[in-house]
Amino acid sequence: MTMQGSFDHVLVYVDDYWHDVLTREHDAYIESHCERCPICKVALEEAEKRHAALVNVTSSEAPERLITETLARVAAIDAATTKRRRLLRRLLGGALAACLAFLAIVHLYFVNLTPSPYDLTLFGQARLVPGTSGSLRVRVVHHELGNGVQGVPVTIDLLDPTGGPIVHLATFSTDEQGTGSPRVQLPDWADGDYPLRVSAQAPGGSQVLTRTVSLRRAWKLMLTSDRPVYQPGQDIHLRSLALRQLNLLPMAGQEAVFTISDPRENVIFKKKEYTSKFGICAVDCPLAEEIVEGTYTVGCQMGDTKNDLAVEVKKYVLPRFKIDVTADRSYYLPGQRVRGKLQARYFFGKPVGDAAVEFATT
Predict the structure, then answer these.
(1) Which residue range is the domain that position 104 belongs to?
(2) 127-128 and 205-215 as β-strands: parallel, antiparallel, unpaired?
(3) CA angle, 320 as apex, 318 and 325 as ends, to 5°?
(4) Which pTM value belongs to this model?
């Protein structure tokens, strides 16, 4: 312990002074300091009162009844703890015995387990189109002899992971090469991943192979407009045709989203439609009278497939007359002279006279 200097108070040491935990030098320092410092002297007197009060406290013992009840409660808790420990030992002993018996059974099973001499292999696409037909190839091979096994019954099923019905795709027997290539008709299920199960009843036991296949719709999407150029205030008429990519059957009831973007790539029109039973859907977009002129992008998206089309929006004046050019023959050899006839007439039938004509070759 290190005392403070003469200029510091000794308030924190007054209780230690009365409890005789300081050295004689420290006690003498505190006494001399308190003679000079009124604050510390008051603190020393208060510490003396606290020490006297603590010394005068009479000791007391707990009642006999409380001691008896406490000992009885401790004995009861000890007995319950001992009982629980015995029960736990019995349970652990039974569980350990059951585990040992289970491990023995598993050990005997694997000791007596022999591998199958046959290999079952599935070949085919991992991505298929729902609602269409496809082809799969299965082979059963004796892996020790290295040759195919003939006459093995094989079944192919498609499972629904949501718990729906199992769709049976094919049943066949392997040929002399140990293979089979059945044509299967896939169900028209929603796009997703589905387990494909192949079961082969080979001699000596059955073989089951499960693979995950992806059902994804794929189609061809064609988008057309009624004209290539529009004037402000006119209506843009759009139509789309969706066909299955493999069999070109119409995609009915599919969602198609039409969009139109201006030259600044701002979407000015967006509408959702559903294809008819012929795979066709159409929309109309009226243009404003005051609109940005330029090239507009017209799009139609169906699933992951999108088709775009460019149309012009600008003010123009229809021609007042029509020009027809006819030649004296359908083709010419190099160096021959081209002779033809030009006729210009107004749309109401009157000839266009005194008009300047310019000829050019391209």
Answers:
(1) 66-113
(2) parallel
(3) 105
(4) 0.47
